[in-house]
Amino acid sequence: MDIQYTANKHIITTNPAAQNPPKPLIPVPPSQQGTDNLTGSGQEIPVDGQFAELEASLEEIRAGETILNAALAKEEEIAKNQKQQDRAELESTKDDEYTDPDKEAANARILDRKLSEMLHWKYDSSLSVQGNLNHIHSIFQSLLKDILSNYTGSLQLQLMAQLDALTLNALRQLVTEHFQELLEFLGQYGRPDSGEALINGLFENMAERKPLTSQNQNPSFGGTGSFAQNLDQKGSGQKLTQGVIYQRDTKARINTQYQSFVGKSERSSTRAAEVLQRGGYLTGGKVFTLRDIRQAQNFIQYMNQNFLQTKPEKLPYTSEEYLGFSAGISSLKAQTFIEQAGLKEGTASALKYAMGIYAQEYFFQNAQSLKQTPEYRNQSLTPAYQADSFQKIYRYMIDSYNENHDARSAALAGLKKSLESFYGKQTDPVYQNLNRYRSDIGFFTHSPSANMKEEILNGWKAICRDWNAFLQYTQLSKNKALKFDYNLSRDYYMAFLLSQEKSPHSGKIRKKKAAQFVIRLSILIVGIIICLFLLALFS
Question: For residue 407, which of 338, 490, 483, 300 has the smallest C-alpha distance?
């Protein structure tokens, strides 16, 4: 039996003579015995029983050889598979384990420079609002591309969070510089943090996702660790003494905080796309567009120039119905503007909410101003305003508009209901002695009026002029269907007349006209008698 050594395995082979069964031994003639005798001199020749025993031993050797070769082949296969796994793991991690220091330093310098550009962005008055927004957008996209291309894991998310924070600061400066009136209106009447929601909305339209800032404390991108806090401080306006990643000195050293996060990043398999998808950050934008903000600013400028107000001396003679009707007209303006200007859902919702609070604040301010008037001292004649009477008219007008989206119909319906309530109180003993419901007080003029029919029609004409001026200011006048016509339809004209006839003025006017008719008729009769007398006298 021979053992052959190879590079990868051991192979056991038998003696060639053992592979073939030996032939029976035949005695050699004495003449042939000598040096060529294979058994050597004096060696005995095996008998037949010994040959059988030798052959059995060889069979056992062959069986052992087969088992050993199978074991060696299996061990070789295992080693081969392990080597393939090691090679695959090495290839998957070699890029993370080795980075070109010069390339990393160059990328870090570029990122530092661009982050600093966003940090120190300033509004350029020589550019349009859109031009300034485009500038912010271009810086943002360049930085985002660098971060996604050159960084991975938690560090990538940290840098994206810092980029978002700096971008929000730039957008905040843009909005504050150009849309101050809108921000103040939303701050006073809008939802809490509605100004920040507007700025975040601009970001969402630009990035098509929600801002990924470290203030969210989302564990997916590191929360508010020391590195994130340091970035936040740099984003808040403090002067950068060194780069965010690459130290600004001649030694070209990487920041220690950066180094600590690099290790965590290389061990992390987290990718920004996964976090954004999993966390619901992707939105597709269209929350607050620059066009919507411009339109809303235009409307707020109109509201500021035409602020609802009543002269203090008129308040004791101003009814809750008139306040509700005036607030309703303002809300109808907002509703019409939102629909006709095509505002997106985010801007529309913010403006509707703010106008609702504005209407309530209008009532409360007048209620407080009434208490400062001299007439309020005698509360039996000038009691405090009742919010319920105000709300009935205001809500009725808003509901009427929501039913048919016709501002003119809603305004006329509101005026009809207001006059019915107003004139009803003028005849009610509970109210008719109050200053604001005296029988001679006009609904629109808040002062004594001799001709109530004329007072109603003049008041409606004033509403039409104001409404059409609003359409002109907000550039909605091209749609003629939105205009208010001075001429009342027959139905509303008759409704106003019926409302006016229910007032105490109508009885007094009829009595006054009857007395005037009697006097005139008496004068005419007396004149005729005198004429007849003179004719008889001279004839």
Answer: 483
